[in-house]
Design a protein that fits this description.
- This is DNA-directed DNA polymerase.
- InterPro entries: DNA/RNA_pol_sf (IPR043502).
- One of its GO terms (biological process) is DNA biosynthetic process.
- It comes from Trichonephila inaurata madagascariensis.
- The protein is mainly α.
- It is built from 4 helices and no strands.
- The longest helix is centred in the last third of the chain and has 9 residues.
């Protein structure tokens, strides 16, 4: 059971939805008053950490169940919590709509063969393409 729970642990999703943004405002030395003002902000739109810290923590009486449970029927304030392992179908027609925010992130190790050519080129520039695993690639 510990391995099952450990396998499901996810970190926070940190991402940039749009690949390029340029700020232009009075607080910058490069401010151009002929252009519209724009700002770049960090926005924690989900506050998952803060929300999670305000919830009850599971502490004991963990057990497997054979009963069919419809998670939509479990009250939000239930004294019994569940961890579900599911197989999801994610229709192709939704991929573009959800491109900027993954609805079901996975915890996976990506192999070099799965990386795009541009990522491989960047990795070569930084001399980090040395293993078949990219788990230790840190690009800044």
């Amino acid at each position: 059971m510990n391995l099952f729970i450990e396998k499901g642990i996810r970190g926070g999703v940190a991402m940039i939805s749009h690949r390029y943004a340029k700020a232009n405002n009075v607080y910058l030395s490069t401010y151009d008053s002929t252009l519209p003002s724009s700002y770049i902000i960090y926005l924690d739109a989900n506050n998952l950490y803060g929300w999670a810290m305000s919830q009850h923590l599971p502490t004991h009486d963990f057990s497997w169940t054979d009963e069919d449970v419809n998670f939509m029927d479990v009250p939000n304030d239930s004294d019994i919590g569940y961890i579900f392992e599911v197989d999801l179908e994610y229709p192709d027609e939704l991929h573009d709509l959800h491109n900027c925010y993954p609805l079901a992130p996975e915890k996976i190790e990506v192999s070099v063969s799965e990386c795009s050519p541009i990522l491989k080129n960047i990795a070569k520039e930084f001399s980090i393409l040395k293993s078949k695993s990219v788990k230790n690639w840190f690009l800044t």
